[in-house]
Each structure stands twice: as structure tokens, then as C-alpha cells.
Amino acid sequence: MDAIDDEEYSGGLVSLYQDGFSFIMRHNRKAWRKTPTHRIEYPDYPRRAVMEGLVNALIHRDYMIVGSEVHIDIFDDRLEIYSPGGMVDGSSLEGRDLRHISSQRRNPVLADVFSRLQLMERRGSGFKKILEDYDSQEHTTAALMPKFMAEHRDFLLTLYNLNYVEGKNVAQDVAQEKSSKYGAQILELVKANDKVTREEMAQKLGVSKKTIEREIKKISRLSYVGSGYSGHWEIIS
């Protein structure tokens, strides 16, 4: 399969930003974890990093390059935002400290408009903000930090999916569990006792056995290994 979604947008810059941001967020799943007092959410892509990346692509692109456009490509493990035009001064990013690169604006009038709309700040580097947003995420690793590539006519930002582990999107599994009304409770019962029966689940949750069987089918991470009383439940991590 080449793609699961595809859109093409035209119009003013603010409209392009809003449409592009909505497209990304539509595919930005969230894993979550409960605590005694609240729920902690883990998005595939941090919201602030997405906003900064998209704004920078629209504001700093080289509009003199005819026939090119900003592209947003979403893969299982990453999000790529491409913009025509490299660094304003033509420099390379190789070997540079990305957190201390001064902000240079190719299109200062456009930057001023977005600043007045509070879509970007007047001061500060977008590189630093994107990196800091990833730093603040609980499950960030060095391998998942954003990558920036700049050449004479091209700029590419790669944001890595923080929920993608060994060929699976954890947030996608969580979304499936959320669609199951009793999914989280069933998983907790299995964690406490991997030999718990469907009848015991039904009794503890106050529902029928048929309801339990229906809900179990919605939990892709849960499987029963073996048969009868000699088998046990396994949760795929």
C-alpha cells in the first residue's frame, strides 16, 4: 500500500497552515497511561514541534523556486515536512549546534503576519523550540530526536514517531483498546492473573460472559495461548 490518505490544499498561507496542521493532527494518535489522579497522554508527534515545523516550512520557503511546494509526508515511523529553499544564508547544518543558530527570515513580512496572529514568536530559533518540545516528552530517546537537513534548494524536517516501536504503533493499539468499553479493565485483570477465565472477568466487571467475549475481540494486544485450563493469556507489548 502506497498511502492511506492524501490531500492537496491551495489558498492563502494561513489557510494552508490550518489545513496542513489539521491533516497532521488527524493522523497523530495518542497512547495514554492512567495515574491515580489523572491520565498522561503520549502523542505520536508533540504538538508544539508540529506547529513550529509547519510554520517554518511556510514562512521560510523560497517562493522564487517555481513549480515546487511544501510537502507533508506521514509514514509509520516518522513525519517529514519538506520546504523549497535551504538556509537563508546558504550554509549547511552539518556539525552545527542546532540549539544556538540565530533566526534569519527569508520572508520578514510573512513572518511578521504570522507573529501578529500568534502563530510564531518574533524571536528565537524554530530549531531550538522543536528540539525542546521533543526533550520534554517522557519517552524521548536520542535516536528519536528530530533531524534537520538543509541544502541549497531544499529543507527537510524529520519528526520521529515517539510511539513506534519495533514495527508497531503503540498508540494505534491503545486506540483500539479505548474502543473497547472494558478493554483497560480486562487487561488489568489479565496482568494480575494470566489464567483468569472469561467467567471470572464477567463476574468481577458485573457483565455477561458474552459481553466479555465481544470486548476481548476488540483488544488486538490480547491473546490466549494454549487451550482449556492449561492455557494462559498473553499481552503483546
Features:
single chain; 237 residues; alpha+beta; Heat Shock Protein 90; Arc Repressor Mutant, subunit A; 2 domains; four-stranded antiparallel β-sheet; two-stranded antiparallel sheet; 8 helices; 10 strands; 35% helix
SSE layout and pairings?
Blueprint (H helix, E strand, L loop, with lengths): L12 H14 L3 E5 L4 E5 L3 H13 L11 E4 L3 E7 L23 H9 L9 H10 L11 E4 L3 E7 L3 E2 L2 E2 H10 L3 H10 L5 H8 L3 H8 L5 E4 L6 E4 L2
Antiparallel strand pairs: 1-2, 3-4, 4-6, 5-6, 7-8, 9-10
Helix pairs in contact: 1-2, 2-4, 7-8
Structure report:
The longest helix is centred in the N-terminal third of the chain and has 14 residues, at 13-26. Helix 7 (198-205) crosses helix 8. The strands form 4 sheets. A 4-stranded antiparallel β-sheet has the order 3-4-6-5, covered by helices on one side. Strands 1-2 form a two-stranded antiparallel ribbon. It has helices at 13-26, 47-59, 108-116, 126-135, 170-179, 183-192, 198-205, 209-216, and strands at 30-34, 39-43, 71-74, 78-84, 147-150, 154-160, 164-165, 168-169, 222-225, 232-235. It is built from 8 helices and 10 strands. It is elongated, with a radius of gyration of 23 Å. With 237 residues, it is an alpha+beta fold. It folds into 2 domains: 13-165, Heat Shock Protein 90 (2-Layer Sandwich); 180-235, Orthogonal Bundle (Arc Repressor Mutant, subunit A), CATH 1.10.10. The model has no long low-confidence stretch (mean pLDDT 85).
